Amino acid sequence: MEFIDLKSQQARIKAKIDQRIQDVLSHGRYVMGPELDELEDRLANYVGVKHCIGAASGTDTLLIAMMALGIRPGDEVITVPYTWISTAEMIALLGAKPVFVDIDEATWNMDPSKLEVAITEKTKAIMPVGIFGQTADMTAINEIAKRHGNLPVIEDAAQSFGATHHGKKSCGLSTIGSTSFFPSKPLGCYGDGGALFTNDDELAGRMRHIRVHGQTERHHHPILGINGRLDTIQAAILLEKIEIFDDEIRKRQEVAEAYGKGIRNSSVTLPVVGQDNTSVYAQYTILSPERDALSESLNRANVPSVSYYAVPLHLQPVFSGLGHVKGDFPVTEDVSSRGLSLPMNPYLTGDEIHLVCEALGQTAL
Predict the structure, then answer these.
(1) Residue 337 structural domain
(2) Which helix (H) or strand (E) holds 286?
(3) Cα angle vertex 84, ends 152, 211, to 5°?
(4) pLDDT at position 363, please?
(5) How do residues 341-355 score in pLDDT, each as one tens digit?
(6) Please, what is the Cα angle at 273 between 270 and 274, to 5 degrees?
(7) Is residue 77 predicted with pLDDT exceeding 70?
(8) Would you say residue 1 lies in a domain?
């Protein structure tokens, strides 16, 4: 059984993918070629914003977003400790300070009720994360940001692209939306890739310049930038994948529904989709104090599972200088200690789902 089944997806669209790649090989514009322009238009329309800027990775998009906002040493950016390291890593790389707030007990995303006390005169941005496939409560977060001088909000939507909040698409909910096209994401390419989204014309222009070394015209570099360009072949692949994306989201939601009905284990807490949210189920993650026993039971049945973010960011050695200790973010620490992600992809069969549920149910408690 595949944890993330890219083979079945590729077989579904292989002829079209092959043709797209051949087109790129024929015209020879391998970096930021015409497919990138086509992809940016397509994705901007999909999200419902004015601008999409393709970039080399989801990590680069976070860096580019903060550079465009002028984040610098001494500034503070608020985020969560329950996420992949790149979220806080890029804050620290700019010399700014990651300020953590705990997550919500139900959705495992940023808890807006804990956000306001973390805001100081040094706060320059808020970066919520759409963990496991759904957005944070962006409405509440945006309202808090507005009350505090219209603080910019960067939505780290590396896992939630395609999800909705109050009917609006992830990446179109704040000042800047950022996503990843890493192969394991619901919409992934065959290498690294990412994109930025905004309705702000000035920010869009700045981000476009930053991704090409700060160049605004040939041989003219008025601002610092990075090499954050998206390869044309990756853009071409994404153009075919977006054609089946909504269908794959629907299938992911059907798999999640089947898990919800089929898992019969009293130790397990199932994922909760927040009110007015939809999820693309980048992962299907359960909680249990018997996590290790569950994982072993799954392994015996040849079912893969993964414990994501088992050590939260505030307890990572690289961030020891922030002075956090165990107990500072109790909800994050609880979820980190009990979380286990099950196989999730649009091509799981009914028999495979049944096998997963059976293996969970056979765990000795």
Answers:
(1) 245-361
(2) strand 284-287
(3) 55
(4) 58
(5) 999 999 999 999 999
(6) 130
(7) yes
(8) no
Amino acid at 219: H
Residues whose CB is less than 8 angstroms from the CB of residue 268 and which lie 6 or more positions away in sequence, other chains included = 286, 287, 288, 294, 360
The answer, yes or no, to whether residue 169 has pLDDT greater than 90, is yes
pLDDT in the model for residue 116: 97
| The two structure tokens encoding residue 249 | 């989201």
Cβ pair 358, 342 in contact under 8 A: no
Spatial CA neighbour of 50 closest among 197, 240, 231? 197
* CATH number for the domain that contains residue 42: 3.40.640.10
Whole-angstrom distance between the N-terminal and C-terminal Cα of the chain?
Answer: 25
CA distances in angstroms from 334 to 5, 302, 327, listed in the order given: 29, 27, 10
Backbone angles phi, psi at 323, to 5 degrees: 85, 15
Percent helix, strand, coil in the chain, to 5, is 40, 15, 40
Q: Is residue 10 scored above 90 in pLDDT?
A: yes
For residue 365, pLDDT over 90 is answered with no
Contact 13/243 with Cβ under 8 angstroms? yes
* DSSP label at residue 270: P
Q: pLDDT (tens digit, 9 = 90+) per residue, 186-219?
A: 999 999 999 999 999 999 999 999 999 999 999 9
pLDDT digits (tens, 9 = 90+) for 279-337: 999 999 999 999 999 999 999 999 999 999 999 999 999 999 999 999 999 999 999 99
Contacts of 216 (CB under 8 A, 6+ apart): 209, 222, 223
Q: Which of 190, 209, 239 is the last residue of a domain?
A: 239
Same domain for 307 and 164: no
> Count of domains in the chain?
2
The residue with tokens 């299938």 is 251
Structure tokens at 231: 């390869």
pLDDT digits (tens, 9 = 90+) for 226-285: 999 999 999 999 999 999 999 999 999 999 999 999 999 888 999 999 999 999 999 999
Q: Assign 22 to helix, strand or coil.
A: helix
Contact 263, 289 (CB under 8 A): no
Q: Are 280 and 162 in contact (CB under 8 A)?
A: yes
Residue 70 CB-half CA count within 13 A:
7
In single-letter form, the type of residue at position 147 comes to R
Distance CA 90, CA 131 (A): 17
